[in-house]
Design brief:
- This protein is α/β, with parallel strands linked by helices and 533 residues long.
- It has 4 domains: 7-111, Rieske Iron-sulfur Protein, CATH 2.102.10; 129-236 and 366-433, FAD/NAD(P)-binding domain, CATH 3.50.50.60; 250-362, FAD/NAD(P)-binding domain, CATH 3.50.50.60; 461-519, no CATH class.
- 19% of the residues lie in helices and 32% in strands.
- The two termini are 37 Å apart.
Length: 533
Amino acid sequence: MQDDKWTDVAAEAEIEEGKTLKVEVDGEEILLVRVKGRIHAFGNICTHHGGPLDEGLVVDSTAPGINTGEEIVCPWHHARFDLLTGRASGEPAVDDLPRYPVKVSAGRVHLNPALEPTWPETGILSNQTFAVIGAGAAGSAAVETLRKEGFAGRLIQISAEDNLPYDRTHLSKRFLAGGMSVEQVFLYDHDFYERHGIDLMLGRRVTTLQPGDKKLVFADGESLEFDQALIATGGVPRKLGFEGQELEGCFYLRSLADAGAISAAAAQASQAVVIGAGFIGLEAASALLARGLEVRVVAPEPAPMMTVFGERIGQWLRALHERNGVRFHLGETPTKITGDGRLRQVELSSGDRLQADMVVIGTGIVPVVDFLRESGLTENGSLPVNERLQTRADFVFAAGDIASVPDRRSGRRRRMEHWVEARRQGRKAACSMLGIGSPFDEVPFFWTKQHGVPLHYIGYAPSVDRLAYRGNVEDGDFLAGYYLQGKLRAVAGVPRARELIAMEDALRSGDTPSFEDFENPRKALTARSPAAY
């Protein structure tokens, strides 16, 4: 297409301030939005998982930094994009939106299909070396952000795994269900790292970090000096202590290699036992059932995920799985796996024995901080950081599953093991390493998808004293509000995408609805932005 090709797409009057309009040009969906009187045009497809942005919500930003004021929030997983630049301003967005030139003439809006650039010229700290230890959510977000924000020095990303960095959220969902290839799980191909000058060290394990010398030591004895470092090593599966885990067919699910081995075993199996009824366990159960296996879930709690969502939503989750064919053994724990070289049975605390061809264990993780034991940076098995993600050493930062961050709204520290939280921290840590951006003050967000049903959770509520509901939990159409001392701390919901975005915006600003307003179906739950509804 020619750069001088302009296409008439809409009447100027159709696009109100803060509202969006989807148009199509040469088969491409394009989002028009008016911000501060000017019309902008961006790709309409979220760069995370392809959500339709026109079904999302325009909100006023409450976190100044790399965004400029107004944002569009994706209805699927709440990725945020700045509406003046198209820049990805909130995780889990990976890439920026395509941005198109716009001109208005005689009351009509015209688009040019020639994309405008979004990445800046580099030139910041060109004489420094930054080391990012870890290639998961936080580490990958950090290297992307460092280059996007103009860091021109040597940038090294270190991974203990042999494969390219990947999106871990796919492993227990589409990948395990057989709906994705290995290549589709990768965040970027090799060309991306070469094009942006990222020195990707794969299969390298750091055994020591020496803050005083600004030096890393690898397992093979080699060392690397740095000017600043980000620690984003994530976690490893929490191992259970029962007998028989060494038998063939018993798996923990954490890495791409784990997921590949489970997928291969599932192709030959007919009966699976999943140990754990948290995110990983229930998503794995859903994926294995989709592959035609008989699935049983074993967990000690009386309802799945009740410590996160409460018993009522936990029982709804149980019913959702049971309608699809999953069988539960709740209030029980495994005591032994038996077999003849390959597992055959799982013995439970009740004395029951479950036949199985394979076992998947998903019972949480332990932060990878063992290599830091002599560094003086750890505390209670994690890395405490300040609001700029700095550790006790000013030039060493931490993000993701290992980081314990201050939470302004609760007055407590939080350490959350979720993809979006990790990517947001990685992005913020990168900005802090460059001396730009604002302190980390994000509202946590995570999602799960089971049997095709998405469940979202926004906020941080380690303890609550009242739960408010809107809609009907048992019908799978609801919002739940988690209150402590009269203040809304978190929200969960299915599906109610726009209301959830509005509540995320409310939690960010602190202007949250009362318990009575939340439960009143005639009271609208809206964001501060007048464009919310």
